[in-house]
Amino acid sequence: MKLEDLRKDMVAAMKAKDKDRKEAISSLVSAAKKAAIDEGCRDAVPEELVDRVILKELKSVKEQIDSCPADRTELLEEYQKRYQVIQEYAPKQMSEDEVRAYITEKFADVVATKNKGQIMKAVMADLKGKADGKVINQVVGQLCQ
User: Crossing angle for the helix pair 19-38 and 47-67, nearest 10 degrees?
Assistant: First the structure.
């Protein structure tokens, strides 16, 4: 996802007077800018960085939804709207079956050792941002049995 695309969508949401959507996209833009400044690439923000920020924000909103008390329905609705908007921009994640196929194909020699730490170290570098870490951990655990 390009930062410029996010900015255009934010402007479109502002023109449409869609406050929830504008705030969600605005938080993504500001988080991406901050990450770019921290990594020293303020002018040319790579798409990989923006995708990583979107996934991080998605995870944070998911945690807010999970930790929100059930009796705070208005707050829960706000978090869910925000989650849905951010999810539209999140890069597609690999499914459990895709992860299993990828690991058995690319890392057959490491999987043969049955050393979970070694496998995770090799696989995480390759699949970072492409698949959820929990899914990868689960698949590796099954392969090590």
Answer: 120
The total of other beta-carbon atoms located within 10 Å of residue 55's CB is: 18
Residue-wise pLDDT for 7-21, tens only, equals 999 999 999 999 999
Task: For residue 140, give the amino acid letter.
Answer: V
Please give the structure tokens belonging to residue 5: 């695309």
In the chain, % of residues over pLDDT 70? 100
Residues 97 and 36: beta-carbon distance below 8 Å? no
Confidence (pLDDT) at 131: 83
Q: Radius of gyration of the chain from Cα atoms?
A: 18
Tokens of 115: 């050393």
Tell me if 48 sits within 8 A of 129, measured CB to CB. Answer: yes
